[in-house]
Amino acid sequence: MNLVVLQNWLDNAAFAVLFLTMLVYWVGAAFPTLPAIAALGTAGMAIANLCIATLLGARWIEAGYFPLSNLYESLFFLAWGITTVHLIAENGSRSRLVGVFTTPVAMGITAFAALTLPSDMQAAEPLVPALKSNWLMMHVSVMMLSYAALMVGSVLAIAFLVVTRGQNIQLQGSSVGTGGYRLHKAGQLITQPTTPPVDNNGFARRFETNTNNGNGSTAVLNLVTNPQSESAVVAEPLSPQRLGLAETLDNISYRIIGLGFPLLTIGIIAGAVWANEAWGSYWSWDPKETWALITWLVFAAYLHARITRGWQGRRPAILAASGFVVVWICYLGVNLLGKGLHSYGWFF
C-alpha cells in the first residue's frame, strides 16, 4: 500500500476510534455497572495510540526526517502524547474517569488535523535548512510531550472544578502537605476535630463520609461566615460520590502536571542550546520563547503552591485550569497571531 494512502487511512481511523472511545467512556460514566465498558475504553485508547504511532512512523519513512516539521505532524504527535499520558494515568490510578475528559481533547485534535487542514498543509515537504538538525527530535519531541502532559493535567483540574461546583473543599492525601482534611474559619486554618460539633459559637461545620476511597475518611466543606451576623452559611454539601471523584481527579491532575513540568524544563533548555547553535543567542524573546517561559512560570507557581504552601482543592485547580489556555497559546496561538523565529513551517 502506498504510504500516502496508508497515512490518509490511519488519520481517519484514529479519529473514528477516538470518537467511539469517547462515547464508550461517557456511557461508562453514566452507567458504571455495565460490564466490560472500562476495558473497551482502555482498548480504544490503545488502538488509537497505535494508529497514530503507525501514522507518524510511515511519515518518518516517507519524508526521511522525524515527523515534527508542520502543523499536521505536530497535531498528531500531540494527540499521540495525550493518548500515551492517558494510558499511563489510567494504569497508575486504576481509574477509568480520566478517559471521560481526555478523549474529547484527543479526538478534537485529530479531527482538526485530519478533517479541517487543507491537503497542502498535510503533505510532507523537505525541511527548511534551520530544521536540519538532530535537535529537532530532542527539543521538539520533549516540548510536545510536555504540552500533552500539561494539557491532560489541566483538563482534569477543570473537571475537578466542575465536579465540585467551584466549592472550596480540602481533600485528603491528594498532594504533598498536611496529609489530613482541613477547613478554614474566619481566615484561619483549623485542624479537623475527632467528632464534628453541631455548633461552635455560630460556626457550623458540615461533614460528609467518603466511602469511595475505601478508607472511611471524611471530607470537610469550607465555612463561610455571614459578616452581618453570627449565624453561619454552610456551602451545599457534595455527595460522597462527588467527593470521591473530586479527590481522584485532583490527585491524578497533580501527578500528571508533576510529570509534564520537568519535560517542559528540559525542552526549554534544549531549545536554548539549539537557538545558540542556530542563531547565535540562547534567548531572543521570540513570541514562542516568551510564552514558553510564561507556561513554565504558571506551572511552577502551581507546583510551588501545592508542595511548599500546601494548597489543595479549588485554588490550585484554578491555576492549573488557566494553564490549559496558556499552553494552547504557547503551542498554537503565537503562530496564528504573530510572526517570529519559530513561525516557519508551522514549527513547534
Protein architecture, described:
With 348 residues, this protein is mainly alpha-helical. Among the domains are: 1-124, Four Helix Bundle (Hemerythrin (Met), subunit A) (Up-down Bundle); 182-241, no CATH class. It has nine helices and six strands. The longest helix has 40 residues, at 240-279. The radius of gyration is 23 Å and the shape is flat. The model is unreliable at 176-234 and 344-348 (pLDDT under 50).
- Given the C-alpha coordinates, what overall shape results? flat
- By DSSP, the count of extended strands is 6
Structural class: mainly alpha
CATH C-level class of the domain at 1-124 is Mainly Alpha
Distance between the termini: 30 Å
Helix content: 55-70%
* Count of DSSP H/I helices: 9
Mean pLDDT: 76
Largest sheet: 2 strands, antiparallel
The helix-strand sequence is HHHHHHEEEEEEHHH
Q: How would you summarize this macromolecular structure in one to three sentences?
A:
The protein has 348 residues and is mainly alpha-helical. It is built from 9 helices and 6 strands.
